[in-house]
Amino acid sequence: MPVAGTGEEHGDMESYEHDGLRFDVTESGPPDGPVVIALHGFPATHHSWHAVTPILTAVGFRVLAPDQRGYSPGARPKGRRAYRLDRLAADVVALADQAGAERFHVIGHDWGGAVAWALADWHAERVLSMTSLATPHPKAMLRSMVRSTQLLHSWYMAYFQLPGLPELSFRPPGLRTFRRSLLRSGLSEADFDIYMELLGQPGAATGALNWYRALPFTKPSTLGPSRVPTLYVYGAADFALGRYAADLTGSFVTGRYRYEVLPEAGHWIPENNAAIVADLFLQHVAGSADGEGGA
């Protein structure tokens, strides 16, 4: 395990480049600590890790939390194809390269979890361990669409495919409805306001929605099982993701696997359950012989 520190150290890395795009990133913790790349979901930003990060850096981890493609002002390409899952995963590998991290831990929530699943197969040689919060393996999700009530939970995915109309959710009066819906699901007013400050910027809402619009260009059949030590954390009160896919996810892991259900947790796991997330992550990492993962 890393050596405990103050948790107050902040690195110099504020941005990195890939695909002709410039991504914002927040670096925290000792520069020589094991790297954790923390990936936010929709409609969040790197801020979703604000309560998890200090716990990890306090025990010696170096945490890199980017604002991903579509969210960073310098990384909002036009067109749905630019947001395919393989490009999103490649963005993370580029971050690791430019941070000097030959191997790294990845933790993702929501869409960030989907990217983590991709990294755990397509770039397994780089990943020490992966942790997904809320998001099941994409193949488990696909099966749940036809074998459970998941399709009813996922109606918004079809809505987000529409051109132009979903962007109205980020502007008045649609923003009021969107806000009410997310607050009802457990997101705090403070977190919502921080996320909307970024997504109110020109092109940001479209960039965030393009993750959904790129779904037709990413076939789940191309994604294999996670081949690295894997932790999956599911909130039983999640408004968007049902239990069927969560329970099925272990079928798509060939590495060491741990599945944790948080009975009282909803969808916003990193924001609302930071101490539990950090504790589970640290147990997960410590579960390997050298404390840094490995298949």
Any overview of this molecule?
With 295 residues, this protein is of the alpha/beta class. The protein has a single domain (15-286), classed as Alpha/Beta hydrolase fold, catalytic domain (Rossmann fold). 36% of the residues lie in helices and 16% in strands. It has an 8-stranded mixed beta sheet with strand order 1-2-4-3-5-6-7-8, with helices on both faces. A hairpin with a 2-residue loop joins strand 1 and strand 2. Helix 2 packs across helix 3. It is globular and about 50 Å long. It starts with 14 loop residues before the first strand and ends in a 9-residue tail after the last helix. The model is unreliable at 291-295 (pLDDT under 50).
Give the SSE map.
Layout: E1 15-18, E2 21-28, E3 35-39, H1 53-57, E4 62-66, H2 85-98, E5 104-109, H3 111-122, E6 127-133, H4 138-147, H5 150-153, H6 155-159, H7 174-184, H8 189-199, H9 204-213, E7 230-235, H10 243-248, E8 257-262, H11 269-272, H12 274-286
Parallel strand pairs: 3-4, 3-5, 5-6, 6-7, 7-8
Antiparallel strand pairs: 1-2, 2-4
